[in-house]
Amino acid sequence: MIGLDTSHVSIFAKLLHRDEAEPSSRLFGATVGYAYPGGSSRMELSYSRVDRYRNELVSQYGVQMLDSIEAVAEASDAIMIESVDGSTHLEQFRIVAPYGKPVFIDKPFTTSLEDAYEILALAERNKVTIMSSSSLRYAEALTNAVQLEELGEIIGADVRGPMPFVQGQADYFWYGVHSVEMLFAIMGQGCRKVHTICSGDHEVIIGCWSDGRIGTVRGRRQGGGFGAVIHRHRGSDYVDIQTGSKPYYESLLEQVIDFFRTGHSPVSLKETLEIIGFLEAANRSRETGIASSL
After folding, report:
1. SS3 at position 89
2. What domains can you pick out in the chain, each with its CATH number?
3. The model scores a pTM over 0.85
4. Which phi and psi (to 5°) does residue 22 adopt?
């Protein structure tokens, strides 16, 4: 693990080191062996949390702390870039790419399309497989709802979720990425234009797809839960993300461990790029008040 400044490292370590894991579990046999604490001086929410999570991983799970990103890349079979400041991911990936290990980059993949393309170029040059995703993409209630076909093909979606902003991270890249990942899990690729409307504590992002479909994200700056309405030809379904029997972090981690073992990412890099482009366009539209093309 690289970057111990997010609750994700605590959650993932607990899931991978739990005593009750069965040999039949998709997580069985995977553990966190090494970590580099990191931390971003740009974000108080980063540097203020490193000591807490570093101490937890050492005392509770026996994770060995190393003094450089290079040392972690050398010692590990696979790498998780967890740093909460997405603007640091390119430089961290630049360091680990030459080691040729599979890499999971936690949300957000990057905070700019330019950085995203550079990571892809580095991955191709070094023949490195990469994956990035929000845990909300794999929320059990959402994946089950998307697979239902009784009401016909999906013609649109309305997603809701918390959307706080923090200093040091570009607006929607901080928490909006979760709801946007949900939207793309439902709608797939093909968004061409984004229009953002904001009023008080409320944010609405409207995406227009090339086939005429419309998908929206409604965010509340003060928090709240995640949910979605999936529109189909013969009706609409509401999805309450909290109703799944399995925690969505566990569902994501299963996908990540499968990726480490197979080298195949369940999320296409093309879709990851489009999500970053969507967030970037949404931020532009928020600033200008007019629609922005991806």
Report:
1. helix
2. 7-128 (3.40.50.720), 136-246+276-293 (3.30.360.10)
3. yes
4. -95, 155
